[in-house]
Amino acid sequence: MEKKLLRKKQLGQSLVLGATGLLLLYICYIGLKNIFRYNAFMLEYRHLNTQVEEETQRNLMLKRQLSKMNDADYWEVQAKQKLGLICEGEVVYRLYTTIPKK
């Protein structure tokens, strides 16, 4: 009779120990899974922050360009550079690095 009680007690302890071991393994698995998920999230977060900073810099540059466009001198310089505009009374000098053919 005592052997049966001892055997039942050992079986109960083994079951508790096994269940505890399985629970511990499950918790470790969830922990590792969440660590990997956290690392992936942080990588994406850093990437997005970098993109936001780049777009902020681009936005500032475009705002500066837009504010320059409100100036009439800006448009005059652009017309001279891109369209070859010559205002009345201006003299244009052209400098050649090679001798032009006639």
Describe the structure.
- The protein is 77% helix and 0% strand.
- It has one domain (2-83).
- By secondary structure, it is mainly alpha-helical.
Task: List the main descriptive attributes of the protein structure presented here.
single chain; 0% strand; 102 residues; mainly alpha; rod-shaped
Give the topology, please:
Blueprint: H1 2-68, H2 72-83
Query: What value does the Rg take, in angstroms?
Result: 39 Å
Helix proportion:
over 70%
Give the topology string: H per helix, E per strand: HH
Describe the global form: rod-shaped
Number of helices: 2
Structural class: mainly alpha
- Low-confidence runs (pLDDT<50, min 5 residues)? none
Q: Kindly, what is the distance between the CA atoms of the first and last residues, rounded to a whole number of angstroms?
A: 125 Å
Mean pLDDT: 86
Strand share of the residues? under 5%
Please count the beta strands (DSSP E, at least 2 residues each). 0
Task: Write a brief caption for the model.
The chain is mainly alpha-helical and 102 residues long. The protein has helices at residues 2-68, 72-83.
